[in-house]
Design goal:
The protein is α/β, with parallel strands linked by helices. It has helices at about 45-50, 75, 95-105, 120-130, 150-160, 180-195, 205-210, and strands at about 5-15, 15-30, 30-35, 60-65, 65, 80-85, 165-170, 200-205, 215-220, 225-230. The protein contains 7 helices and 10 strands. The two termini are about 20 Å apart. Bound molecules: adenosine-5'-triphosphate. Adenosine-5'-triphosphate binds near residues 39 and 41.
């Protein structure tokens, strides 16, 4: 399988804090990597470097054969799907469910929402929402801010994968949910990842989830990759 994500000698300093130390890493197409580590180990910083929210102090980042080290976040957004810890972050609360989905579908295109949403798109949205099994397919014109945290994360997940990103970044995306909802959103994530054959990088604090999900586990400690195991070994 092709290498989809490559980090070479990445270092990140926040002033005197050396948050990422000489991290080199290759993720192949189709790998589902869970990233675990104590508070402050550097997991979010690493994800932020991949997404383009921060530039590394040194080193290079490649996604799908492109050197994205200095590519601005909005330009690499079309390669990536991302779901954050905070359910408020991935969706526009004041817009309807169908408007949010339409924006996700038009990501990277000039054509915005002013052309309206076609009947065909609406049918597709309904079908996708039905699969979430949260009853959202009958609420296309409900404002997203009225949804529960779990419903909102499920919708964000759908939006992040609507255009089949090269790489899906899940940043403790179930940490703010109650255990039952968290389980449901994790199962949904697994289902969507498998269905589209997505390569993904999931940060979690939960060792059990890190072992249960994905086919490769990376543990970070003090800014370095401390453990990196795949398949049987995992
Ligand atoms: P957590 O599990 O608590 O989210 P993490 O593994 O994601 O932790 P990071 O958030 O990447 O860890 O933090 C790595 C180190 O960098 C920590 O020492 C943290 O205090 C520091 N750090 C992170 N962001 C900043 C920032 N914007 N400014 C200064 N220091 C930062």
């Amino acid at each position: 399988m092709e290498t989809l994500l490559k980090l070479t000698d990445v270092n990140v300093f926040y002033g005197a804090i050396h948050a990422i130390r000489d991290v080199s890493l290759e993720v192949r197409e189709g790998e589902i990597v869970t990233l675990i580590g104590a508070n402050g180990a550097g997991k979010s910083t690493l994800l932020n470097c991949v997404s383009g929210a921060y530039a590394p102090t040194s080193g290079e980042i490649w996604i799908d054969g492109q050197n994205v080290t200095h590519m601005p976040e909005h330009r690499r957004a079309k390669l990536l799907g991302r779901v954050f810890q905070d359910p408020m972050m991935g969706t526009a609360g004041n817009m309807w469910i169908e408007e949010n989905l339409a924006l996700a579908l038009r990501r990277g295109q000039k054509r915005g929402l002013r052309w309206g949403i076609t009947q065909k798109e609406r049918e597709m949205f309904k079908e996708q929402l039905r699969r979430l099994d949260l009853g959202l397919e009958d609420r296309l014109s409900t404002k997203v801010k009225l949804l529960s945290g779990g419903q909102r994360q499920a919708l964000t997940l759908l939006m992040a994968t609507l255009q089949k990103p090269k790489l899906l970044l899940l940043d403790e995306h179930t940490a703010a949910l109650d255990p039952k909802t968290a389980r449901k959103v994790l199962e949904l994530s697994e289902q969507i990842i498998e269905e589209h054959g997505l390569t993904s990088l999931m940060v979690t604090h939960n060792m059990r989830d890190a072992i249960r999900y994905g086919n490769r586990l990376i543990m970070m400690h003090d800014g370095r990759v401390a453990v990196d195991v795949s398949g049987e070994e995992k």
